[in-house]
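agent> Task received from the user: take the single chain below, predict its 3D structure, and emit structure tokens. No templates, no multimer pairing.
agent> Plan: (1) validate residues, (2) run structure prediction, (3) serialize to tokens, (4) report one or two observations.
agent> Step 1 OK, no nonstandard residues flagged.
tool_call: predict_structure(input=
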Amino acid sequence: MALQTITIRVSNTGRTHSVPAGYNLEQVYDMLQLDMPHGATSAKVNNKVEGLHYTLFSGKDVEFLDTSSASGLRTYTRSLFFVLYKAAATLFPGSRLRIEISLAGGFYCRLLREGTDTLTADEVAALKQAMQEIIAADLPFRRVTAPTTEAAALFRQHGQEDKAQLLESCGKLYTHYYTLDGLPDYFYGSLLVRTSQIYLFDVMPWGGGLILRLPDAGAPDELRPWRKQDKMFDVFRENHRWQDILGVSTIGQLAEACRQGYGGTLINVSEALQEKKIAALADRIAARPELRVILIAGPSSSGKTTFAKRLSVQLAVCGLRPVPVSLDDYFVDREKTPLDADGQYDFEHIHALNIPLFNQQMRALLAGEEVELPRYNFLTGKSEQSGNRLRLRQGDLLVLEGIHALNPELTAELPAECKFRIYASALTSVLLDFHNYIPTTDNRLLRRIVRDNKYRGYSALDTIRRWPSVRRGEDRWIFPFQEEADEMVNTALLFELAALRGEALPLLEAVPESEPEYSEAYRLRKFLSYLPPLDTKALPPTSLLREFLGGSTFKY
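)
tool_result: status=success, residues=556
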């Protein structure tokens, strides 16, 4: 009997290929003998990322991925999480691994045990050795399909109530999970086929837990650069402690709280906590009369604009007069804008701003002189006279908000003692479950998708397509300076992903399957499906989320 074949289009080769029906992606990869130095981790099948376990029965478009792509690296990372979990379960029976945050070029993880949550350097070294042995053993990651009720019961048997709650909150009849040497785990994306595909990692003691380090997508043969991020670490730890006190540290717990009618309470408590922190920050600034310039920076959709407005309100309560100055009005004439590698205007470059004029006018204002602020005409690409004259009075504070606000080059000529630097970002601290963290970039991307559609008429496809360029600008111009801030502020709200869900889902569902961005839209849709719907009517009109959802009393 002749073997039935199907035809697939493989973007890695630029050709169509006949392959046996029933082959999985791993078999197809081996058959095609592709030149990928560390092999494929996963593949896009009709623009949806699948594991190499995926079986082909009909014609498809296929693109094999490796650790040089964001999606391929996510598959690698999830598999490494499972190996760490297996090592921890072997060495420390009864412990709970908690993968908390992306930090310092890796992931900060804790091991929760009876009597202690602290790992010693020797224990971290033992975990690394156990992981290396698991990888060398070439163990398979087995994919299992089971009724959700059975999967939830299995995870409860293994002490993973967080996973059971997550699966039960989805309302799905069947669930896919993985096993490694008999140990079950659940991830909301694909895993590798075998442990031996993991070729590079490291673990190091940090903050009572450990940092799990990964390959760098830009240089897959090297680990991501190590960066100390003590201030960010402190913000995350504070938020995790607060969430643990509330009993809402995972999405399953959030869903359960909403089901029991506590959604409104979570909104009120979260908003009150954020307002209390902003008020306390204003008090600290007001207690330092030498401060004259407040600098606020943060990445795209971090909520820094609304944060700046709310801080200004609290500064006014303290008897000060905040004076906002827009950095956008200091753009150079368009023809003087630096060019990027593609020869296009790089509007995110620090030298897209007229730094000499900015420093000259800021020095004059601090000296009590009057200046005429510029106005940038975005239609003509020219800097114009505004007629807006400004002189600072006693008690006036300049409030400057923008992506370059923390870059020392921007304010190099201003006295250090008069500046207060704030880094604001949506540092998502709630977890899907203990082994599935939520990237802060996903939170910001969802905010931007909703806002861009509501206020700028952009589709989710448009926003997702622009996002890699936005992220490159952040990596270059924002993140290197975040630890230089005098204060780091978390603008994320405990409940906000559930609040964004209703607006974001239909926008993501409109992304066509034929577009390369479909894979990212599908991933975000799958992630949002775990979240409970939350009525946003209870959001106060000054909420940071109103910047994205609408209904704010602030003017933008």
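agent> Step 4: summary for the user.
The first strand starts at residue 5 and ends at 10.
agent> Done.
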